[in-house]
Amino acid sequence: MQTYLPIAELPVDVLLVLGMALAVGFVSGMFGIGGGFLMTPLLIFIGVPTAVAVASEAPQIAASAFTGVLAYQRKQAIDFKLGGVLLGGGVAGTALGVWFFNLMRDAGQLDAIIAVSYVIVLGAIGGLMLVESTRALMRKAPPPSKPRGVKRTFVDRLPFKMRFRRSMIHVSALPLLALGAGVGFLGAVLGIGGGFLLVPALVYVFRVPTAVVVGTSLFQIFVTMMAATVMHATTNASVDVVLAMILMLGGAIGAQFGVRVGQTMKGEQLRLLLALLLLAVAGRFLADLTLTPIEPFSVVIAEGAR
């Protein structure tokens, strides 16, 4: 069952794309992440132009995050003040990311930049998660820990501190703005929500309680991905509405089943599987960068020769 993607300018098998969206939605629901790090590469691997794959994944991530925001808001598990500070950097980072995206696209280096970025980011995060989850699975029982005070870090010494009552933290706004900007930049350039980066940073660096960190992260991702969608659509016309609708439909359905499966697995097992997924995607991009293509030459017809 073929359909034509007007912006990507190529026909695709609807069932194939829908099946991929269902699978990625399942993974997203199981791990509690956006899934852009997996869906964007899959679209690239089946022939969708890199620019269109990145831009068209943004509305799918925004739609998935919006459903999560509604669910967590009903539980009053979102710190909107913290989310607002993250958005201050997130929107700026998204705008910078779209500018960099267009700059690399015009220079003809976008595909290489995205491939290298996926190898570095996913390889590093996946490697760290693999080591941590493997150690956690091999450790039978944690030794009883003695109560001790919380050590002050570099982040605690920065100025412009703000108090976030729902998150029960009192930290500087500067690193939060920088974190939001970094996640927004990566989201705009790579077509990822960045939840797998944002959540660990909030938990381990800023000590935000787990009860509010996921909902707050989804709120930030929703707004930044909506901003990325608008910016991509208006500046480079890379958002393919037909493709985005298929992705949103499949992702929403698959996520419902993924949530049920994820609730039956241990946290260490989930982190191990996610680490293997991250490393697999990074390995595929690394292979594309290093292996000699089957057809190393191409013929380009100049405009004046037609």
Automatic annotation (TrEMBL):
Which InterPro entries does the entry mention?
A: TM_pro_TauE-like (IPR002781), TSUP/Inactive_protease-like (IPR051598)
Question: Does the keyword Transferase belong to this entry?
Answer: no
Major location, coarse class? Answer: membrane
Q: Which GO terms describe its cellular component?
A: plasma membrane
What UniProt keywords apply to this chain's record, in alphabetical order?
Answer: Cell membrane, Membrane, Transmembrane, Transmembrane helix
Subcellular localization: Cell membrane; Membrane
Give the way it sits in the membrane.
Multi-pass membrane protein
Membrane-spanning segments? 12-38, 82-101, 113-131, 171-198, 204-227, 239-258, 270-287
Please give the family membership noted in the entry: Belongs to the 4-toluene sulfonate uptake permease (TSUP) (TC 2.A.102) family.
- PANTHER family under this entry? MEMBRANE TRANSPORTER PROTEIN MJ0441-RELATED, MEMBRANE TRANSPORTER PROTEIN YTNM-RELATED
Q: What is this protein called?
A: Probable membrane transporter protein
Organism of this sequence: Hansschlegelia quercus
